[in-house]
């Protein structure tokens, strides 16, 4: 019985630690910043999180700074009725007062580019600074997690036709999915 209690307590601590990954700044809560595992040869990754604005003032995520990443941009991914997937660079991501904005695969996200040579393994952490228009800066860590099938299907860069350009040289404005 003692072993079961110890095991249950350990499991609860691990679960609590895994989800206690939230940050606060003024009226903003940034919940569970994450990215996914990647091999060293892969030059891009996405960053995801949920941002809740409990204040009565609109704000905007202007940029994400990551020292080890050569280029970081805010993007929106959309797929039109013809199956053409586009990544559209954003000048910022609005976070309206009283609302929650979710950055997720296949939608709004942080795009990390030029990161070949470094593998991201589950359990790693990537330190970043979020820059908000009104609230200021907030230091966070992106957890590196295993990609679920749902996440993989939502935005699978390997299924996109990149033509002759390397991913680092692209403007990400339009990609056509291979089916």
Stretches where pLDDT is under 50 for at least 5 consecutive residues are 2-18, 155-179
Structure summary, number of beta strands: 13
Mean pLDDT across all residues, rounded? Answer: 81
Number of domains: 1
Give the H and E element order: HEEEEEEEEEEEHEE
* Overall outline: globular
| Gyration radius, in Å | 18 Å
Topology-level CATH name:
Immunoglobulin-like
Question: Can you name the CATH architecture?
Answer: Sandwich
CATH evolutionary superfamily: PCu(A)C copper chaperone
End-to-end separation in angstroms reads 53 Å
**Structural class per helix/strand content?**
mainly beta
CATH class: Mainly Beta
How much helix, percentage-wise, in residues? 10-25%
Number of H/I helices: 2
In what range is the share of β-strand residues? Answer: over 45%
Main sheet: strands, sense, barrel: 13 strands, mixed
Provide a concise account of the structure shown.
This protein is mainly beta and 179 residues long. It has 2 helices and 13 strands, in the order H-E-E-E-E-E-E-E-E-E-E-E-H-E-E. It has helices at 2-19, 149-154; strands at residues 22-25, 28-36, 44-53, 59-65, 71-79, 84-90, 93-95, 100-103, 108-113, 125-132, 136-145, 160-161, 175-177.
């Amino acid at each position: 019985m003692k072993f079961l209690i110890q095991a249950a307590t350990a499991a609860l601590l691990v679960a609590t630690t895994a989800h206690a990954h939230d940050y606060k700044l003024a009226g903003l809560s940034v919940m569970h910043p994450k990215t996914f595992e990647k091999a060293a040869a892969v030059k891009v990754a996405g960053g995801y999180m949920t941002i809740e604005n409990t204040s009565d003032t609109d704000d905007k995520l202007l940029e994400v700074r990551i020292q080890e990443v050569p280029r970081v941009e805010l993007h929106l991914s959309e797929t039109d009725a013809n199956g053409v997937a586009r990544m559209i660079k954003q000048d910022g991501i609005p976070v309206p007062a009283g609302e929650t904005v979710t950055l997720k695969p296949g939608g709004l996200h942080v795009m990390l580019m030029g990161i070949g040579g470094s593998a991201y393994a589950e359990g790693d952490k990537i330190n970043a600074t979020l820059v908000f228009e009104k609230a200021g800066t907030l230091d966070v860590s992106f957890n590196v997690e295993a990609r679920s099938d749902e996440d993989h299907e939502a935005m699978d860069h390997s299924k996109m036709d990149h033509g002759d350009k390397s991913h680092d040289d692209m403007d990400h404005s339009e990609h056509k999915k291979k089916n």
